[in-house]
Amino acid sequence: MIVRWRAVREAARGPVVTHALIAGCGVVFVLGPASGLNPVYGTGGDELLSAGTAYFRRWGVVPDELFTGTPRAWLTPLTALFVHGSWLHLLGNMLFLYVFGAMAEERMGRPAFLVFYLCTGYLALAAYAAANAHSAQTLVGASGAISAVLGAFLCLLPRARVTSLFPFLFFLPLRFPAWLVLLFWFALQWVAAHRAESGPGVAYLAHLVGFSLGFLYAWGRYRRTTRVERPATATEGDSQP
After folding, report:
1. Rounded distance, CA 150 to CA 123, Å?
2. What's the CA gap between 121 and 230, in Å, rounded?
3. Are 219 and 148 in contact (CB under 8 A)?
4. pLDDT tens-digit series, residues 182-208
């Protein structure tokens, strides 16, 4: 009876880890230079730009520095998960995390979901850095970890229906099975990764690695358990992790 009451009480609190990750990313962004809200970094112009560059190099992943063997460099794939380059970058990632993370957390459990999120995000960014080992471009953002959440969601709840908004259909809300939406998203990342040129931009490879890690982990860990499926609401199209 006590165990059952604890489970009910925890369920009533909602996706605590998901909400905490969103709050953490939000606080880090507001306090950082990219938000433009912290006067410590200046109020604009070259001063703010210089502060932002230094900030991203300190807390983001710099591929050509990651494998130098310094302890600080090896921590950056973890710290980079909480750093974002713009309001659009932050809000797009947090939207996906809010929608898909809540159900994935409920399915995995809070401690397991937190470890899963941090580990897959770290590995996704490290894999991108390894593939671009000579690049000096800084990589920041939670998209690798959130892509892993999408991969796990596809494995755990493939038939859950999600509401998607497509810009080319005038943002008309349409409902599709999660497997169709997420496989379409993965295909877009695959095409974009093969068309992307070297240099600054979106780290599509980190998305692909994260998604694959998330799916494989969920398949290996939960394939023998019963899937719990229910409707979900998501926004896909103009914002991508």
Report:
1. 15
2. 26
3. no
4. 777 778 777 776 666 544 456 888 999
Burial class (CB in 10 A: 0-12, 13-18, 19+), 33: buried
Cβ contact 239:95 at 8 Å: yes
pLDDT at 164: 52
Dihedral sign for Cα atoms in the order 22, 16, 104, 117: positive
Question: How far is it, in rounded angstroms, from Cα 1 to Cα 208?
Answer: 43
* pTM of this structure: 0.81
Which residue in 236, 230, 235, 233 sits closest to 156, CA to CA? 230
> In the chain, which residue ranges form alpha helices assigned H by DSSP?
2-13, 16-31, 45-59, 63-66, 71-79, 87-108, 110-131, 143-156, 178-195, 204-222
